[in-house]
Amino acid sequence: MIRGNPLRALLTTFAAGAMPDVPGISVGSPITDNFLSVTNEGRLGYSVGPQMLFHAPALNPWLQVIH
């Protein structure tokens, strides 16, 4: 992303920190959601592990509207 559009990457990094915190919605930035920080916080298993496979059907927007 930085190589393709450096200005957008810079603005997105700063804008993510200025966005208000909404319960249930997490807006990350490249600084807070990189491989090392996610591993350190213990969230890597959900990002790439079997939990993502089992929770993927719940991410379907049509199911979110119905439930």
Report the strand count: 0
The helix count comes to 5
Mean pLDDT: 76
The total tally of domains equals: 1
Radius of gyration, taken over Cα atoms and rounded to an integer in Å:
15 Å
Give the topology string: H per helix, E per strand: HHHHH
**Helical residues, percent:** 55-70%
- Largest β-sheet summary: none
Low-confidence stretches: none
Overall shape? extended
By secondary-structure content and strand pairing, the structural class works out as mainly alpha
Q: What can you see in these coordinates?
A:
The chain has 67 residues and is mainly α. It has one domain. 55% of the residues lie in helices and 0% in strands. The protein contains 5 helices and no strands. The longest helix is centred in the N-terminal third of the chain and has 13 residues. The chain is extended.
What features would you highlight for this structure?
67 residues; mainly alpha; 5 helices
Give me the secondary-structure topology.
Elements: H1 6-18, H2 35-41, H3 44-48, H4 50-55, H5 61-66
Question: What would you say about this model in short?
Answer:
The protein has helices at residues 6-18, 35-41, 44-48, 50-55, 61-66.
